[in-house]
Amino acid sequence: MHILVFGGTGNCGQAFIPDALHAGHHLTLYARSPSKFPRDVRDHANVSMVQGEFTDVEALKEALSKGAEVLVSFAGPELPSKGMFMTEFYERLYQLVPDYSSIRRCIVLSTASFKVPEDTVTWKWWIVISMISLLGGTCYQEINGLSRATSSLGGNDIQWTLFRVPNLTGGEAKPVQASYLGDGTDGLFVTRKSVAIWVLQELEEKKWVDKAPCLSNPGWI
Q1: N or C: which end of the chain has fewer CB within 10 A?
Q2: Contact 125, 182 (CB under 8 A)
């Protein structure tokens, strides 16, 4: 596949990119500072680079026009955050997608702060989400804003998946449980490498089209 990647210089993106290239995918990487990517990524035959800010409409058009069929984004708000910068970015991006791209699938990072009807918010999630809401600045509002924008893509005949992550950790890839909050298998931790592998598998398997699973490593509360 040809995949347009946002947030590739972050820890999850850095875990995803080598695995995606190893799987034979072509990547267009959008970044403010492409020099942050390792040289072997920058020089890879299957990598195209587009330099730009999230507010740079012309650079976004260039990236979208590279021919990708799939958009994968690990870009999210910082904690704590101010303003609605990321929500505005996703809204701006999705407005451009129909006219400037061949993208028919979007897989985007979110968190448990965005609740879906299938969720049952248990005490552990109530504590976590309350802490984010109280101490995270506008992070709670940002996650909900970008998630609503993504989940509205179905109106444009674009398949979407929001992969909601709990606490991200280092470490090696482990099996991933994709579930809804409160179903008894929803843990509070997942490694970044596990997330990267799950996203690659979901690209192929399409088990969670137009859905918002929460990812975790089994055995972690």
Answers
A1: C
A2: yes
Q: Which residues pair with 191 in a beta bridge?
A: 169
- Cβ atoms within 10 Å of 221's Cβ, excluding its own: 8
Residue keyed to tokens 């958009």: 71
Instruction: Report the first-to-last Cα separation within the chain, whole angstroms.
Output: 35
Residue 193: pLDDT band by 50, 70, 90 thresholds? very high
Length of the chain: 221
Q: Are 148 and 140 in contact (CB under 8 A)?
A: no
Question: Tokens 């290239």 identify what position?
Answer: 21
**For residue 208, what pLDDT is reported?**
97
- 158: helix, coil or strand? coil
Q: For the residues of 119-143, what is the DSSP string, one character each?
A: ----HHHHHHHHHHHHHSBTHHHHH
- At residue 219, does pLDDT exceed 80? no
Structure tokens at 18: 């080598």
Q: What are phi and psi of 51, to 5 degrees?
A: -95, 130
Q: Are 37 and 105 within 8 A, CB to CB?
A: no
Q: What percent of the chain clears pLDDT 90, i.e. is strictly above it? A: 86
Q: Using the 8-state DSSP alphabet, how is residue 171 labeled?
A: S
Task: Say yes or no to pLDDT of 181 above 80.
Answer: yes
Is this structure's pTM higher than 0.85?
A: yes
